[in-house]
Amino acid sequence: MDDDIRAVREVLDRFVEAWNSRSPQGFAELYTDPHVDINHSPAVETRAATVAALRERFEHSLESLSVTSDQVLVLGDWAVQRGHIEVSGKDGKRLLCYMELLRREQDGQWRVHWGIDAPLR
After folding, report:
1. Were 26 and a residue from 2, 18, 52, 54 both cysteine, which residue would form a disulfide, CB within 3.0 to 4.6 Å?
2. What's the CA gap between 41 and 46, in Å, rounded?
3. Quick one: pLDDT at residue 121?
């Protein structure tokens, strides 16, 4: 169980690394294909769509992320992770909370299957 919790949190570390190094492909590989991002429209998104959207976003934004995992619950080949995100950019900092549902795929890797984030008040 501890190994699974550590592996789920490592997905988060790779998420931050991919975002901050502006790697759309590296970022998209952390998600199932397709995956659900409740904040997007449409909510169901393929990896290819994620890569395309991030390429455009990274061209126009220098935001960086810092993310903290507050809790991970592992339920077999599924895990729930929640925490908070600090987004830093030219307009200052924003704080968000997030929740993700991750799935261990056939290759043994944990990937985000559903995700949602919202501003912290």
Report:
1. 18
2. 12
3. 74
